[in-house]
Amino acid sequence: MMIAQQPNFVGNEARGQKGHRCILCVVRVALKSTSFPLPGCRPDTFQVQTLQPPPLSSSFQSSNLKSQNADITTTTCRWLYADAMTTDGGRDPSLPGSPVNIDALDLSSPTSPTTRPLYTSQYTDLTLLIGEEAAKFHVHRNIVSVHSEFFQIACGNPHFREGAERLVRLPEIDVETMTTILRWCYQAPLALPDDLMSDEGYEKVRRLLDAADYLVVENVVGLVARATDDYLYHCAKWSSDRKALVAGEQKKVDLLCRIYDSGGKMQDDCLRKYLRSLKESHKLGLFMNIVKELEDCHEKLFNDIMVALYSTVDE
Predict the structure, then answer these.
(1) Torsions phi, psi for 295 (to 5 deg)
(2) Which residue has the higher pLDDT, 234 or 57?
(3) Which of 88, 120, 155, 226 has the CA that lies 20 to 30 A from 245?
């Protein structure tokens, strides 16, 4: 667990249409303890993000952060406040004394009320209309734009309709999938099915990849690719039923294609391990036939599979 040690903050305040402020802070953190020695701060409200830090002022650059011990690393952290900072930078005693607990946000129901100040219409500055039913999600532009190039472009240009109206319509994405992505945007980790290749799990992952590709959320594609890597690496059993076996391998090949089509990539050692297991189980020919018969197999995927296949020839 990370702790903040003699933190120094530099904040870029992004004020939304209705006064919401989001503080992007640069903090020194160390891997030394399981508690946070900060007043009013709980571990589940402190979220480390791999974001590009904002430009630092000259006074901040010359601060003692540069002279901290070598085991302290600089990370960009996001603390979300419900306008908990006054205009002069001090704390407003009438507001809650700790950052909003992002884990407590209820995104399972787009229209359900929440008592959390961050997740109210007073502080959100973007409305999403999701699915054919146009379910409403009230979100924060600065949060979704960090993770999604689609939102960054759509909301960052006032000449676009979405940027001017602060309203984005996404009938292509279903409510469940958008909920999964928004939960990840606000808190992580990404919720993936336990069994990626079950009928239900495969369908959820397929929709998630399609949405991540559409919204250009590269990190979600990468997380799905790593989960698929892990699944294939540990895969050692196959159905004895021929029909079920063929259907299972077709789903795997299709999922691999979707990952590559979305800009992802499989780890070479995982592909080699999976093909080796197929060979030992006398299923390699079936898998390769499915790959060769697939009309729209991604070129890079096909090349990676062939490289992995050649590595098994002499084994």
Answers:
(1) -70, -35
(2) 234
(3) 226
Would you call 14 exposed, middle or buried from its count of C-beta atoms within 10 A (0-12, 13-18, 19+)? middle
Q: Give per-residue pLDDT as tens, 232-282.
A: 988 878 888 888 899 999 999 999 999 999 999 999 999 999 999 999 888
Q: How many residues does the chain have?
A: 315
- Give the Cα separation of 71 and 28 in Å (integer): 10
Identity of the residue numbered 236? A
Q: pTM value?
A: 0.61
Domain boundaries, the chain: 3-100, 105-183, 192-315
- Kindly state the DSSP code that residue 64 receives in the 8-state scheme: G
- Which residue do the tokens 């018969």 mark? 293
192-315 fold: 1.25.40
CATH of 105-183, one of 3.40.50.300, 1.10.760.10, 3.30.710.10, 3.30.559.70: 3.30.710.10
